[in-house]
Model the fold of this input.
Amino acid sequence: MVGCSVDVPNRELPKQPTIVSLNPCADAILAEIAAPGQLLAISHYSHAERSASMPLEEARRFAATGGTAEEVLALSPDMVVADTFLAPATRAALEEAGIAIHSIGIAQDLEASLGQIAALGEATGNAQEAARLSSDIASAWASASYEGEPVTALLIQEGDIVPGATSLAHAMMERSGFVSLSAARGLGQGAHLPLERVLADPPDVVIAAGSGRMLDHPVLSQLDGLERFELDSTLLYCGGPTIPRALARLGEIRALIHHPPTPSSEEEGETVASGQNPLLFRGGGMGVVP
Done:
């Protein structure tokens, strides 16, 4: 179970305390479950396209802070939600001001993610909304179960890192009908799989969730039959509300494998005229399917 704890100040908290979130994973959850006006600000990460774990239009309904004690104190919240790596000086300043601190860790599986939501709901006085969100996520998980033959996939995240067998990303891949190449090799979360090992025993599919030297290497395009698909990297940073969206995209990818979209007759004609291989153009080989 993911670690969750609340350091309670000497004063009694309101039933629904005002909140400042310094954690992008908590931002996405609190935006779903908090009462109107309760969430005073979220982290600056959620206002940036490459690091947000929630839709930007939703995130920008809330003010954001850079996470400094001065910014938080200016908002006078009853509670701050932060990760377990909150700077000691910031923690001390918030505690001295009598602000409760709710700490959350990294959710590495579905159970931990649902537990994290429940803990936030309890701490913020929004248990009913938290239960609704958890129910929606659990339903999406149940619906995503793939009964067909699994295919071997290499998920490559930003910086060429791969998911391990104990990660939420791996669990979602399995649920969606994939065998994770990196997990099968015994690699841990955040490990690097050398390109040479990929070429020696290539997967059926590469799922690119970010950018890196391996993904840009031209030798990958020379592997016969290897299909490549894109997955928004922000869907893998957190659990919570991103889980249904990540499962939906993985399901789309699984359905497209060996069945690429057929281009229109006009596109087909342009492709043949240009001398390109129509199969590569349509997503076979290393053609990117959006």
